[in-house]
Design brief:
Distance between the termini: 35 Å
Bound molecules: adenosine-5'-diphosphate, magnesium ion
CATH class of the domain at 1-75 and 198-249: Alpha Beta
Number of strands: 10
Order of helices and strands: EEEHEEHEHHHHHEHEHEEHH
Shape: globular
CATH topology of the domain at 1-75 and 198-249: Rossmann fold
Helix content: 40-55%
Strand content: 15-25%
Strand order of the largest sheet: 6-7-8-3-9-10
Protein backbone atom coordinates (compact mmCIF):
# COMPACT_ATOMS: atom_id res chain seq x y z
CA UNK A 1 0.00 0.00 0.00
CA UNK A 2 2.77 2.40 1.00
CA UNK A 3 6.36 2.16 -0.22
CA UNK A 4 9.18 4.41 0.96
CA UNK A 5 12.50 3.87 -0.83
CA UNK A 6 15.88 5.38 0.01
CA UNK A 7 14.44 8.56 1.47
CA UNK A 8 16.84 11.27 2.64
CA UNK A 9 15.67 14.53 4.14
CA UNK A 10 18.08 17.36 4.76
CA UNK A 11 17.32 20.50 6.74
CA UNK A 12 20.17 22.68 5.50
CA UNK A 13 23.27 20.59 6.24
CA UNK A 14 21.51 18.50 8.83
CA UNK A 15 20.41 15.05 7.74
CA UNK A 16 17.14 14.20 9.49
CA UNK A 17 16.42 11.04 7.45
CA UNK A 18 19.08 8.91 5.83
CA UNK A 19 18.30 6.11 3.36
CA UNK A 20 14.98 5.26 4.96
CA UNK A 21 13.08 2.46 3.25
CA UNK A 22 9.93 0.75 4.46
CA UNK A 23 6.74 -0.83 3.19
CA UNK A 24 3.30 -0.96 4.72
CA UNK A 25 0.94 -3.66 3.51
CA UNK A 26 -2.85 -3.52 3.54
CA UNK A 27 -4.13 -4.86 6.85
CA UNK A 28 -1.11 -3.87 8.92
CA UNK A 29 -0.94 -1.88 12.13
CA UNK A 30 2.58 -0.41 12.25
CA UNK A 31 4.12 1.67 15.03
CA UNK A 32 7.04 4.03 14.48
CA UNK A 33 9.17 4.45 17.58
CA UNK A 34 12.42 6.20 18.45
CA UNK A 35 13.91 8.76 20.83
CA UNK A 36 13.32 12.51 20.47
CA UNK A 37 14.97 13.84 17.33
CA UNK A 38 15.08 10.42 15.63
CA UNK A 39 13.13 11.74 12.64
CA UNK A 40 9.65 10.32 13.34
CA UNK A 41 7.74 13.53 12.63
CA UNK A 42 9.87 14.23 9.55
CA UNK A 43 9.08 10.73 8.28
CA UNK A 44 5.34 11.19 8.86
CA UNK A 45 5.49 14.55 7.06
CA UNK A 46 7.32 13.00 4.10
CA UNK A 47 4.94 10.02 3.97
CA UNK A 48 1.87 12.27 4.02
CA UNK A 49 3.16 14.48 1.23
CA UNK A 50 3.62 17.52 3.45
CA UNK A 51 7.42 17.57 3.02
CA UNK A 52 9.29 16.63 -0.13
CA UNK A 53 12.19 14.27 0.50
CA UNK A 54 15.59 15.58 -0.61
CA UNK A 55 16.00 12.29 -2.45
CA UNK A 56 14.28 8.92 -2.59
CA UNK A 57 10.69 8.03 -3.47
CA UNK A 58 7.35 7.66 -1.72
CA UNK A 59 4.53 5.69 -3.36
CA UNK A 60 0.98 5.14 -2.13
CA UNK A 61 -0.93 2.54 -4.12
CA UNK A 62 1.77 2.84 -6.80
CA UNK A 63 1.39 6.61 -7.13
CA UNK A 64 4.19 9.04 -6.47
CA UNK A 65 2.92 11.17 -3.55
CA UNK A 66 6.01 13.30 -2.89
CA UNK A 67 4.87 16.75 -1.81
CA UNK A 68 1.27 16.06 -2.87
CA UNK A 69 -0.31 17.81 0.17
CA UNK A 70 -3.11 16.65 2.49
CA UNK A 71 -6.16 17.37 0.31
CA UNK A 72 -5.07 15.38 -2.72
CA UNK A 73 -3.66 12.69 -0.49
CA UNK A 74 -7.00 12.28 1.28
CA UNK A 75 -8.68 11.87 -2.11
CA UNK A 76 -6.25 9.04 -2.86
CA UNK A 77 -7.17 7.36 0.41
CA UNK A 78 -4.63 8.38 3.02
CA UNK A 79 -5.34 10.63 6.00
CA UNK A 80 -3.65 11.75 9.18
CA UNK A 81 -5.05 13.12 12.40
CA UNK A 82 -5.73 16.84 12.08
CA UNK A 83 -5.55 18.03 15.67
CA UNK A 84 -8.72 20.00 14.97
CA UNK A 85 -9.16 20.38 18.71
CA UNK A 86 -6.12 22.62 18.72
CA UNK A 87 -6.93 24.35 15.46
CA UNK A 88 -10.64 25.00 16.11
CA UNK A 89 -11.14 24.78 19.88
CA UNK A 90 -14.51 26.53 19.73
CA UNK A 91 -16.13 24.02 17.41
CA UNK A 92 -18.47 21.44 18.87
CA UNK A 93 -17.62 17.76 18.56
CA UNK A 94 -20.10 17.31 15.74
CA UNK A 95 -18.92 20.43 13.90
CA UNK A 96 -15.29 19.31 14.08
CA UNK A 97 -16.19 15.97 12.49
CA UNK A 98 -18.33 17.77 9.90
CA UNK A 99 -15.35 19.93 8.87
CA UNK A 100 -13.43 16.76 8.03
CA UNK A 101 -16.35 15.26 6.10
CA UNK A 102 -16.88 18.47 4.16
CA UNK A 103 -13.23 18.53 3.14
CA UNK A 104 -13.59 14.96 1.86
CA UNK A 105 -16.76 15.70 -0.06
CA UNK A 106 -15.17 18.81 -1.54
CA UNK A 107 -17.86 21.10 -0.18
CA UNK A 108 -15.42 23.51 1.37
CA UNK A 109 -16.80 26.50 -0.46
CA UNK A 110 -20.14 26.42 1.31
CA UNK A 111 -20.72 28.70 4.23
CA UNK A 112 -20.29 26.91 7.49
CA UNK A 113 -23.79 27.65 8.81
CA UNK A 114 -25.24 25.97 5.75
CA UNK A 115 -23.62 22.77 6.94
CA UNK A 116 -26.00 22.22 9.77
CA UNK A 117 -28.75 21.89 7.22
CA UNK A 118 -26.77 19.41 5.18
CA UNK A 119 -28.42 16.16 6.16
CA UNK A 120 -25.87 13.86 4.57
CA UNK A 121 -22.92 15.52 6.30
CA UNK A 122 -24.72 15.56 9.65
CA UNK A 123 -25.75 11.92 9.41
CA UNK A 124 -22.22 10.85 8.55
CA UNK A 125 -20.80 12.93 11.38
CA UNK A 126 -23.24 11.38 13.85
CA UNK A 127 -22.25 7.92 12.68
CA UNK A 128 -18.56 8.69 13.26
CA UNK A 129 -19.30 10.30 16.65
CA UNK A 130 -21.16 7.16 17.67
CA UNK A 131 -18.32 4.86 16.58
CA UNK A 132 -16.01 6.85 18.84
CA UNK A 133 -18.42 6.98 21.78
CA UNK A 134 -18.78 10.74 21.44
CA UNK A 135 -22.49 10.88 20.58
CA UNK A 136 -23.56 12.13 24.02
CA UNK A 137 -20.98 14.93 23.81
CA UNK A 138 -21.75 15.99 20.26
CA UNK A 139 -22.66 19.55 21.26
CA UNK A 140 -19.78 20.04 23.71
CA UNK A 141 -17.01 22.43 22.65
CA UNK A 142 -13.83 20.64 21.63
CA UNK A 143 -11.69 22.63 24.08
CA UNK A 144 -13.92 21.68 27.01
CA UNK A 145 -13.55 17.94 26.49
CA UNK A 146 -11.45 15.84 28.85
CA UNK A 147 -8.04 14.98 27.33
CA UNK A 148 -9.07 11.41 26.41
CA UNK A 149 -12.09 12.68 24.44
CA UNK A 150 -9.92 15.34 22.74
CA UNK A 151 -7.65 12.59 21.47
CA UNK A 152 -10.66 10.56 20.34
CA UNK A 153 -12.07 13.57 18.49
CA UNK A 154 -8.74 14.10 16.68
CA UNK A 155 -8.66 10.50 15.57
CA UNK A 156 -12.38 10.53 14.70
CA UNK A 157 -11.83 13.55 12.42
CA UNK A 158 -9.20 11.64 10.46
CA UNK A 159 -11.45 8.55 10.30
CA UNK A 160 -14.25 10.76 8.97
CA UNK A 161 -12.24 11.09 5.75
CA UNK A 162 -12.79 7.34 5.32
CA UNK A 163 -9.22 6.66 4.25
CA UNK A 164 -7.79 3.25 3.45
CA UNK A 165 -4.61 4.12 5.30
CA UNK A 166 -4.42 6.35 8.37
CA UNK A 167 -1.49 7.97 10.20
CA UNK A 168 -1.81 8.86 13.84
CA UNK A 169 0.77 11.00 15.61
CA UNK A 170 0.75 9.99 19.27
CA UNK A 171 -2.95 9.18 19.50
CA UNK A 172 -2.74 8.51 23.24
CA UNK A 173 -0.35 11.20 24.48
CA UNK A 174 -1.29 12.94 27.69
CA UNK A 175 -3.89 10.46 28.96
CA UNK A 176 -3.85 7.82 31.69
CA UNK A 177 -2.81 4.23 30.99
CA UNK A 178 -6.40 2.99 31.36
CA UNK A 179 -7.63 5.62 28.90
CA UNK A 180 -4.83 4.76 26.45
CA UNK A 181 -6.14 1.23 26.14
CA UNK A 182 -9.73 2.43 25.75
CA UNK A 183 -8.63 4.77 22.94
CA UNK A 184 -6.69 2.04 21.14
CA UNK A 185 -9.57 -0.44 21.41
CA UNK A 186 -11.93 2.14 19.93
CA UNK A 187 -9.42 2.90 17.14
CA UNK A 188 -9.06 -0.78 16.24
CA UNK A 189 -12.83 -1.39 16.36
CA UNK A 190 -13.69 1.74 14.37
CA UNK A 191 -11.10 0.95 11.70
CA UNK A 192 -12.67 -2.48 11.19
CA UNK A 193 -16.15 -1.01 10.99
CA UNK A 194 -15.09 1.73 8.57
CA UNK A 195 -12.94 -0.46 6.36
CA UNK A 196 -9.62 1.24 7.14
CA UNK A 197 -6.96 -1.17 6.01
CA UNK A 198 -3.69 0.13 7.44
CA UNK A 199 -2.85 2.12 10.56
CA UNK A 200 0.52 3.79 11.09
CA UNK A 201 1.12 5.47 14.41
CA UNK A 202 3.93 7.29 16.14
CA UNK A 203 3.66 6.28 19.79
CA UNK A 204 5.85 6.66 22.85
CA UNK A 205 4.01 4.37 25.23
CA UNK A 206 5.71 1.01 24.76
CA UNK A 207 2.87 -0.96 26.36
CA UNK A 208 0.56 0.42 23.68
CA UNK A 209 3.18 -0.17 20.96
CA UNK A 210 3.76 -3.78 21.99
CA UNK A 211 0.07 -4.42 22.67
CA UNK A 212 -1.40 -3.31 19.36
CA UNK A 213 1.23 -3.39 16.58
CA UNK A 214 1.72 -6.07 13.96
CA UNK A 215 5.10 -4.54 13.23
CA UNK A 216 7.41 -1.92 14.70
CA UNK A 217 9.79 0.39 12.83
CA UNK A 218 12.49 1.77 15.14
CA UNK A 219 14.21 4.98 14.05
CA UNK A 220 17.48 6.24 15.46
CA UNK A 221 19.34 9.32 14.23
CA UNK A 222 17.41 9.32 10.97
CA UNK A 223 17.99 5.67 10.14
CA UNK A 224 15.83 2.56 10.41
CA UNK A 225 17.50 0.65 13.21
CA UNK A 226 14.98 -2.19 13.19
CA UNK A 227 11.82 -3.20 11.34
CA UNK A 228 10.38 -6.27 13.00
CA UNK A 229 7.58 -7.87 15.00
CA UNK A 230 6.91 -6.74 18.59
CA UNK A 231 8.37 -10.02 19.89
CA UNK A 232 11.57 -9.57 17.87
CA UNK A 233 11.97 -5.95 18.98
CA UNK A 234 11.43 -6.89 22.62
CA UNK A 235 14.11 -9.57 22.35
CA UNK A 236 16.62 -7.16 20.78
CA UNK A 237 18.67 -5.66 23.61
CA UNK A 238 20.42 -3.13 21.40
CA UNK A 239 17.19 -1.72 20.01
CA UNK A 240 15.53 -1.74 23.40
CA UNK A 241 18.31 0.27 25.01
CA UNK A 242 18.94 2.65 22.06
CA UNK A 243 15.38 3.34 21.07
CA UNK A 244 13.23 2.59 24.05
CA UNK A 245 15.76 3.78 26.61
CA UNK A 246 15.35 0.80 28.84
CA UNK A 247 16.90 -2.65 28.80
CA UNK A 248 14.88 -5.83 28.28
CA UNK A 249 13.50 -7.35 31.47
N1 LIG B 1 12.33 22.43 10.11
C1 LIG B 1 13.46 21.97 10.62
N2 LIG B 1 14.63 22.61 10.44
C2 LIG B 1 15.78 22.15 10.95
N3 LIG B 1 15.89 21.01 11.67
C3 LIG B 1 14.77 20.33 11.92
C4 LIG B 1 13.49 20.76 11.41
N4 LIG B 1 12.56 19.87 11.80
C5 LIG B 1 13.20 18.93 12.51
N5 LIG B 1 14.53 19.20 12.58
C6 LIG B 1 15.55 18.37 13.23
O1 LIG B 1 15.51 17.07 12.63
C7 LIG B 1 15.65 16.07 13.61
C8 LIG B 1 14.45 15.13 13.54
O2 LIG B 1 13.31 15.83 14.00
P1 LIG B 1 11.89 15.18 14.12
O3 LIG B 1 11.54 14.55 12.81
O4 LIG B 1 10.95 16.19 14.66
O5 LIG B 1 12.16 14.02 15.20
P2 LIG B 1 11.16 13.25 16.19
O6 LIG B 1 9.76 13.48 15.74
O7 LIG B 1 11.59 11.82 16.12
O8 LIG B 1 11.42 13.81 17.56
C9 LIG B 1 15.82 16.77 14.94
O9 LIG B 1 17.19 16.85 15.23
C10 LIG B 1 15.25 18.14 14.70
O10 LIG B 1 15.88 19.10 15.50
MG1 LIG C 1 8.08 14.29 16.70
Amino acid sequence: MLRVEGVRKLYGDFCALEEVSLEIQAGEFVSIIGPNGAGKTTLINVVTGLLKPTSGTVHFKDRDIRGIGPVRLAKLGMARSFQLVTIFPELSVLEAIQVAIVSRLGRGTRLFHALAADREVRDQALEVAELFGLQDKRDARARQLPQGDKKLLDVASAFALRPECILLDEPTSGVSTAEKNTIMQIVVQASKRMGIRSIIQVEHDMDIVFGYSDRIVALHQGKVLADASPAEIQADEQVMSMVVGRPTH
